[in-house]
């Protein structure tokens, strides 16, 4: 299905999803990279060595969820924008998801952003908790959204310019 639509199947997603026990420990990186291509910036960026691309550079990245602390450095280094940070410990009802974002205008903290699933379908309006700008050499920004916990593994983008004033 991925090769025809560009959208991973539920089975694909399960292969890269941490256990609920791991989610209960705090933020964790999820690499939704499913194509075997020569790429390893995420592995090179991880100071904890939680991401491996082995046995050769054409393999898909694998996150060692027991080592990953969800710092998010890998998120901004992925040229395919395929790494996300999910923190289901953010609150009793919400998860904090960190999304790579390379469009303008950027949302502002306190605004609501229109969250999209992997197919680009609207999932609702969610508070922008933080916007982390990219660096001078890497312009990828990080958008932090508070979403209901049941949508933590569904919301994967926001509609560019689709912002409203907060709650």
What topology emerges from the helices and strands here?
Layout: H1 2-5, H2 10-14, H3 20-23, E1 28-31, H4 41-45, E2 51-52, E3 62-63, H5 73-77, E4 83-87, E5 94-101, E6 112-116, E7 122-132, E8 141-148, E9 157-164
Antiparallel strand pairs: 1-4, 2-3, 4-5, 5-8, 6-7, 6-9, 7-8
Defining traits:
single chain, 167 residues, alpha+beta, Alpha-Beta Plaits, 7-stranded antiparallel β-sheet, two-stranded antiparallel sheet, 5 helices, 32% strand, globular, 4Fe4S_Fe-S-bd, metal-binding
* Number of discrete domains: 2
Identify the strand order in the major beta sheet.
1-4-5-8-7-6-9
Mean pLDDT: 93
Fraction of residues in H or I helices: 10-25%
Low-pLDDT runs: none
Distance between the termini: 37 Å
CATH class of the largest domain: Alpha Beta
- Helix and strand string, N-terminal first? HHHEHEEHEEEEEE
Domain 4Fe-4S ferredoxin-type: 59-88
Pfam families: Fer4_7
Organism: Hominifimenecus microfluidus
Protein name: 4Fe-4S binding protein
Describe this structure in words.
Keywords: Iron, Iron-sulfur, Metal-binding. It holds the Pfam family Fer4_7. One of its GO terms (molecular function) is metal ion binding. This is 4Fe-4S binding protein. With 167 residues, the protein is α+β, with helices and mostly antiparallel strands. It folds into two domains: 1-84, 2-Layer Sandwich (Alpha-Beta Plaits), CATH 3.30.70.20; 90-167. Helices cover 14% and strands 32% of the residues. It has helices at residues 2-5, 10-14, 20-23, 41-45, 73-77, and strands at residues 28-31, 51-52, 62-63, 83-87, 94-101, 112-116, 122-132, 141-148, 157-164. Strand 7 and strand 8 (141-148) form a beta hairpin.
């Amino acid at each position: 299905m991925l090769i025809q639509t560009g959208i991973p199947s539920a089975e694909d997603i399960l292969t890269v999803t941490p256990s609920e026990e791991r989610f209960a420990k705090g933020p964790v990186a999820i690499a939704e990279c499913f194509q075997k291509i020569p790429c390893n910036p995420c592995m090179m960026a991880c100071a904890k060595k939680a991401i491996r691309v082995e046995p050769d550079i054409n393999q898909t990245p694998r996150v060692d969820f027991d080592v990953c602390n969800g710092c998010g450095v890998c998120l901004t280094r992925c040229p395919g924008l395929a790494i996300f940070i999910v923190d289901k410990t953010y609150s009793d009802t919400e998860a904090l998801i960190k999304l790579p974002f390379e469009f303008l205008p950027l949302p502002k903290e306190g605004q609501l952003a229109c969250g999209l699933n992997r197919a680009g379908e609207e999932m609702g309006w969610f508070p922008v908790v933080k916007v982390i700008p990219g660096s001078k050499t890497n312009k990828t920004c990080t958008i932090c959204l508070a979403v209901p916990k049941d949508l933590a593994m569904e919301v994967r983008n926001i509609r560019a310019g689709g912002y409203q004033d907060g709650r």
